[in-house]
Amino acid sequence: MTDKKQLLIIGGGPAGLAAAIEAKKHGLNDILIIERDDRLGGILNQCIHNGFGLHTFKEELTGPEYAQRFIDQVQEANIPYELGSMVLDIDQNKNVTYVNPEKGLVTVAADSIILAMGCRERPRGALSIPGYRPAGIYSAGTAQKLVNIDGKMPGRDVVILGSGDIGLIMARRMVLEGANIHVVAELMPYSGGLKRNIVQCLD
Q1: Under a CB-based contact definition with an 8 Å cutoff, are residues 81 and 12 in contact?
Q2: Which parts of the chain sit beneath pLDDT 50?
């Protein structure tokens, strides 16, 4: 049997949550958010540093605090969501098939679909890191998840390649966790991060 929804939102991070809230404000009631993780909030759950919320909420928040504002609004508006749900297929007729640990294989016919799945870091192959099992090499986002969500240190002696914001933030985070950061190496003659992160995390 196929369920029907006016609006199906794939992704329960800040974009998906904000889209659901706005749709509800504009009179759309038949909404479902599908999230593959076991909690709403997306990437913000591992961004425990502050700096979020200045434009939207006019105050400085951490990533989880910022996400929780949207989660609270979704729950107050009684917008349904399903966690642990992985989308497998979207066909040309806007039928979305996903798998859920409780419901099994589910198909929803949607009038409209919003894709809010976020982004992924480039894998090591795209970064020209050779080999099949490069032990001890992590993307900044993976290291961030290991430390901030899983409570595990990826290493104690660290070299960070690239000086984007997450690399800078993780340099500071790893120092706070007792790691020795040998160098933050950057190909360009300047850092790719925000000025505040250069000052707070490097200087």
Answers
A1: yes
A2: none
